[in-house]
Amino acid sequence: MQFGLSEEQIMLRDNINRFLDDNSSLDRVRAFADGGDDADIWAGLAELGVPALLVPEEQGGIGLTPLDAAIVAECLGAHIAPTPFLGTAVMAPTALAASDGDHDTLLAEIAAGTHRVGVAFGEAVKRRNDAHVEVRGEHMFGKSLFAFDANADSYLVADQNKHLYLIAASDPGLQRTHLTTVDKTRRTVELTYDSVAAQCISRDVKVFEAVLDIGRVAIAADTLGAAQNMLDQAVEYAKQREQFNRPIGSFQAVKHMCAEMAAQLEPCRSMVWFAGHALAELPEEARVTACHTKAHLAEVAQFIAKTSTEVHGGMGFTDLVGLHYWFKRCGANRQWLGAPEFIRQEAAVLQGLVKD
């Protein structure tokens, strides 16, 4: 039994990190946050095969595993890369591959990086009282809040019954309203549907759950990468910043802060890897593991974001250092596809500890 990444997975991680080091610097992320686009980054990732990771080989993809997707997500989180990875490369291929319909052409376009698929799961995960998604016949009505990827070519939408539908972003009945969120590295929209043509992908709740689970694991991996980067920056800063003619990292209080961050974060990597493994190999454990992994990473990342900023002192709050981009990425990840409190309740129901 192997308790680590294979040589191929290590190579995948190194190649993605190398590309992002060159193409998703902090200045490049700032440019996106100020209104730029992510087309160049996504095109480069497409050349590396990132959109094709989970697309079956029969449709022009690579046909890798959820664990491989988690490895890439960790790299993207570490570089706070602005990409449509979660929807286009993770959740959409999972849904389309599980559907009985013919989606070969769409999957091939996704694998090539020429078609972006956003995700609107908010009303199925935790529906608001004043909003809903309703499908009558073949047309969709209502609205979804916090849909991923403002520049998607189509959207994978889940209604309150957890049925999955595919809609075109170009449909005249669809209105996209850009939302202002704390995370400037990714753009979200509110989708309003007025008789939008909706193609049913699946009415099987288990398909919805599988897509939700892999999305949660990908978000947890993204959070892991962001938290690890904040920890690394804090340690590096503590080595260089001097007070009283000595590095602040030599003071016991700062040592303890860095050590506590490392002690809390390191076990999370194994947790994310196991969650990715369980999605493909241990279906009976996959749902509970995905819930616990996302919830736990959200809590650990919150502590690391706060503590690493404190290690930087006043500099941690400036745009020069840029820690706030990682800080806010962790904060947004905490809420997307379910906050920790909500997900733990879901896990408790799955384990029979409480009634739904």
Record keyword descriptors for this entry:
3 domains; globular; 10 strands; alpha+beta; Butyryl-CoA Dehydrogenase, subunit A, domain 2; four-stranded mixed sheet; 356 residues; Butyryl-CoA Dehydrogenase, subunit A, domain 3; four-stranded antiparallel sheet; Butyryl-Coa Dehydrogenase, subunit A, domain 1; 12 helices
Topology:
Elements: H1 7-23, H2 26-33, H3 39-47, H4 66-78, H5 85-98, H6 104-112, E1 117-120, H7 122-125, E2 133-136, E3 139-148, E4 154-158, E5 164-168, E6 174-178, E7 188-197, E8 199-202, H8 205-240, E9 242-243, E10 246-247, H9 252-281, H10 283-311, H11 323-335, H12 340-350
Parallel strand pairs: 1-4
Antiparallel strand pairs: 2-3, 3-7, 4-5, 5-8, 6-7, 9-10
Helix pairs in contact: 1-3, 1-4, 4-8, 4-9, 5-8, 8-9, 8-10, 8-11, 9-10, 10-11, 10-12
Describe the structure.
This protein is an alpha+beta fold and 356 residues long. The protein folds into 3 domains: 7-112, Butyryl-Coa Dehydrogenase, subunit A, domain 1, CATH 1.10.540; 117-204, Butyryl-CoA Dehydrogenase, subunit A, domain 2; 206-350, Up-down Bundle (Butyryl-CoA Dehydrogenase, subunit A, domain 3), CATH 1.20.140.10. It has 12 helices and 10 strands. The protein has helices spanning 7-23, 26-33, 39-47, 66-78, 85-98, 104-112, 122-125, 205-240, 252-281, 283-311, 323-335, 340-350; strands at residues 117-120, 133-136, 139-148, 154-158, 164-168, 174-178, 188-197, 199-202, 242-243, 246-247. The strands form 3 sheets. A 4-stranded mixed β-sheet has the order 1-4-5-8. A hairpin with a 2-residue loop joins strand 9 and strand 10 (246-247). Helix 1 (7-23) packs antiparallel against helix 3 (39-47) and helix 4 runs parallel beside helix 8 (205-240). It is globular, with a radius of gyration of 20 Å. The relative contact order is 0.11.
